[in-house]
Write a sequence for this structure.
């Protein structure tokens, strides 16, 4: 099946107007850190190439998801190996291999795991040191400033839309609330 277009870092458009998401792969939205890089990497892998779709399922939102192969190359694992996508838990024949590859990219601090997107200090403006963070369990958007109990442990993951702010007002305008552990 021919890949006509790459929509973002984890979704392709095939012949006959069929969209397919890559199983196990969660790339940043295009407006977030690493989003354009993820899309560019996927373009190089599959655009205008013939791929084979395997282990296709429909996700909770009704979207087709699959393992995508170009020749003997598993595109899903290549995206994770590049570091431009996060591992998404799934159950396929390749789960073990893909998880291992994703863990290696994170450990190697490449792509979204590099200091470009994964930050404990603000490399662009150290004076703007308020961390805007999204709770992975509740999606609550909190901000932390130096002195907050969780501040030193909080990582700004820009690929998820988290960010640095220069003031509490700026963080609040962006939809973040002062964390409960801040006084």
């Amino acid at each position: 099946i021919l890949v006509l277009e790459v929509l973002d870092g984890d979704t392709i458009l095939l012949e006959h107007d069929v969209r397919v998401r890559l199983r196990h792969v969660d790339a940043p939205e295009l407006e977030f850190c690493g989003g354009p890089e993820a899309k560019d990497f996927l373009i190089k892998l599959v655009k205008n190439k013939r791929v084979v779709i395997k282990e296709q399922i429909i996700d909770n939102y009704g979207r087709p998801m699959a393992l995508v192969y170009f020749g003997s190359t598993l595109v899903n694992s290549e995206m994770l190996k590049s570091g431009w996508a996060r591992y998404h838990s799934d159950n396929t024949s390749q789960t073990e291999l893909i998880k291992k590859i994703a863990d290696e990219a994170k450990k190697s601090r490449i792509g979204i795991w590099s200091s470009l997107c994964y930050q404990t200090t603000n490399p662009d403006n150290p004076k703007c040191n308020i961390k805007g963070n999204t709770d992975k369990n509740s999606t609550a958007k909190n901000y932390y400033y130096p002195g907050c109990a969780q501040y030193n442990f909080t990582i700004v993951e820009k690929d998820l839309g988290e960010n640095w702010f220069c003031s509490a007002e700026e963080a609040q305008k962006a939809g973040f609330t002062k964390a409960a552990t801040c006084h």
